[in-house]
Amino acid sequence: MLSHLTAVENIDLSMKASGKKIPNKRQLALELLEKVKLDETLAKCRILKLSGGEQQRVAIARALSYDPDIILADAPTGNPDLTTQQEIMDIFDNLSKTKINVLSL
């Protein structure tokens, strides 16, 4: 992620870089951030102003922006506190109940 950009800008930029034709990128980015429990206030914060757990959620939302069938997560709960670790695992658990398979390494 680029530290000088906001959470939503990082996701938007990632979607642009993918080359996919995605209408309403900003709105989709906000919806994905909401899906990982980050509200619009946090979406407008620069990445460096977010906690480690919040940055991890932005990374998950960015991965979701590609509409993947599977997400490979390398130590997704490596740094955050225990509460945040559980919240991140809950996000992955909820995703696994949809069409997305999550493999945590």
User: What count of helical segments does DSSP give?
Assistant: 5
Helical percentage? 40-55%
The structure class reads: mainly alpha
**What's the order of the H and E elements?**
HHHHEHE
Q: Describe the strand arrangement of the main beta sheet, using strand numbers.
A: 1-2
Alpha-carbon distance between the two ends: 20 Å
Total number of distinct structural domains: 1
CATH top level is Alpha Beta
Rg (C-alpha, Å): 13 Å
CATH superfamily placement:
P-loop containing nucleotide triphosphate hydrolases
Count of extended strands: 2
Oligomer: single chain
Largest sheet: 2 strands, parallel
User: What is the second-level CATH architecture?
Assistant: 3-Layer(aba) Sandwich
Coarse shape? globular
> What fold name stands as the CATH topology?
Rossmann fold
Indicate the mean pLDDT. 85
Low-confidence stretches: none
Strand content: 5-15%
What does this structure look like?
The structure is a single chain. The protein has a single domain, classed as 3-Layer(aba) Sandwich (Rossmann fold). Helix content is 52%, strand content 8%. It is built from five helices and two strands. It has a two-stranded parallel sheet. It starts with 6 loop residues before the first helix and ends with a strand. The model has no long low-confidence stretch (mean pLDDT 85).
